[in-house]
Amino acid sequence: QKEVEQDPGPLSVPEGAIVSLNCTYSNSAFQYFMWYRQYSRKGPELLMYTYSSGNKEDGRFTAQVDKSSKYISLFIRDSQPSDSATYLCAITENYGGSQGNLIFGKGTKLSVKP
Amino acid sequence: DTEVTQTPKHLVMGMTNKKSLKCEQHMGHRAMYWYKQKAKKPPELMFVYSYEKLSINESVPSRFSPECPNSSLLNLHLHALQPEDSALYLCASSQDHWRGEGDTQYFGPGTRLTVL
Questions:
Q1: Contact A17, A79 (CB under 8 A)
Q2: Of A68, B4, B14, B78, whose CA is between 20 and 30 Å from A31?
Q3: Which residue, among B105, B108, B90, B89, has the nearest Cα to B30 in the 3D structure?
């Protein structure tokens, strides 16, 4: 069983739609959760990070963590064509020899159509 | 400023060449990372430097040789690479390594490497 599962998509939505991106994880010891956005042929750009259950909002983006269900989500409101990218969830290991390492999901490719 | 810079942006090399990738950050971060990313895959960790010392080597072949000359710079020396090593090579940095919230990693734009 992979430690972080993410539906690779692709996901196609019309401009203005609300987008929901999700990841599940297997280890309840994971503590820090991040979302990265990666445009084609570019490096990942940090969008959001959080370490507690609940919601964190930044503009059109909301990150949600449910530690009891081991489920993390990223919501994008009023999606724009410029949001078209691959979205990677990432979780930091905080135990053992791999402390501090990022575990990435496979990434979800999002396309927002004008 | 959360910028990590990488040079060159693109690199084409033959299997007998020796080349180097460079990474720089001026955020005062004490941890720096090299990742390899193949198309449609997430980044794979190669090396971690913490306080200028190599702390993690993820069983990377010796044809990849990292170097951390100082706390702001990270190099990746390449020698006798194979065509399957063609990928996007990403550098990242974080305030610290395995200190919780300080682990947030910021990535550079990457070097797209093609081995002929």
A1: yes
A2: B4
A3: B105
Tokens of B64: 């990849």
Give DSSP secondary structure letters for A38-101.
Answer: E-TTS--EEEEEE-SSEEEEETTEEEEEETTTTEEEEEESS--GGG-EEEEEEEE--SGGGTT-
Tell me, yes or no, if A45 comes closer than 8 A to chain B by beta carbon: yes
Closest residue in B to A49 (Cα–Cα): B104
Partner residue facing B42 (CB), from A43, A49, A107: A107
Q: Do B107 and A36 touch (CB under 8 A)?
A: yes
Return the residue of B nearest to A89 by Cα: B42
Interface contacts A/B by beta carbons within 8 Å: 65
- Please write the tens of the pLDDT for every residue from B37-48: 999 899 999 999
Q: What is the pLDDT of residues A18-73, one digit of tens each?
A: 999 999 998 877 778 999 999 998 999 999 988 888 899 999 999 999 989 999 99
Cβ <8 Å between A43 and B103: no
C-alpha B21/C-alpha B109 separation (Å) is 12
